[in-house]
Amino acid sequence: MSHVIAVDVGGTAIKCALIDPKLQVVETVQSSTPKGDIDGRFTVGVIHQLYRDFAKKYEILALGLAVPGTLDEPNGIARWAGNLQWSNIKIVDLVMEKIDIPVAFRHDVRAGAYAETRLGALQKVTNGIFIPIGTGIASAIILDGKIRASDGYAGEVGHISVGSDRICVCGRTGCFEATSSTLAISTEYLRRSGRNLSTSEISNLVGKDDVATKVWDDAMKGISTSLLNLTTVLAPEVIVLGGGLAESGDLLISSVKQTLYSNLTFQRKPEIKLARFGALSGTIGCGLIAWELVNANER
What we know:
It is built from 9 helices and 13 strands. By secondary structure, it is α/β, with parallel strands linked by helices. The protein has 2 domains: 126 residues, 2-Layer Sandwich (Nucleotidyltransferase, domain 5); 155 residues, Nucleotidyltransferase, domain 5 (2-Layer Sandwich). The strands form 3 sheets. The chain has a 5-stranded mixed sheet with strand order 3-2-1-4-8, sandwiched between helices. A hairpin with a 4-residue loop joins β6 and β7. α1 crosses α2 and α7 crosses α8.
């Protein structure tokens, strides 16, 4: 049986999945994202090795690739990706130099939103927002039933100011991403407690550990401030939260609802939901666009 592979490049890890024609995930593997890889070549080397490992066992027809940042999707260029330290990287060309199969390219968050609109928590939603919260934070905006990209610049909500004193990778102070990402939560907890814990471990300490509770509450305030701004401007029916922070489940949803809803007055109150595919939304979305490319090439 033929397959495609989905590659979701994040600030911490590169997630790769083998996807069959029924869009079932057959195998998954991940590798650490190379640090300081300013020309993208070490990252491409990791992708190439992941592809070769799968190609030893399966026929691979296409690769779906997702990366963060502001992208020129038609030309396969990462204009800027702060957590990867990329600027104007022709990432699709670099991948195709190593891997001789078709490559479908999409912003990681818009790929995740595509999976959630087709198969997950955003099905049949006309106006919604998808926000995966991981090492970085961005959003996909669904208006009038379509995911809007504005030439690849839309959705960078991680760089909305939420009034904190944290320095962001973009060079500004007080950004949503610098306050509420999984990296921001674990970094702040380490700074205050001296303990290096994952975000999941920190969330399990909320209500039991004063430092964990304060760090969590600060992060939730940042999320709710951003969602209040988005709700006021875009009036979404549904906001879907995904990424690594979504592993906190009901604690995340209840924390956000409590703070957000208490600050709404005239605005439409959005339903707050977890992504169906959790941290794998982007990976599933990559599989979808890869299979669509295969089918288009066969016509």
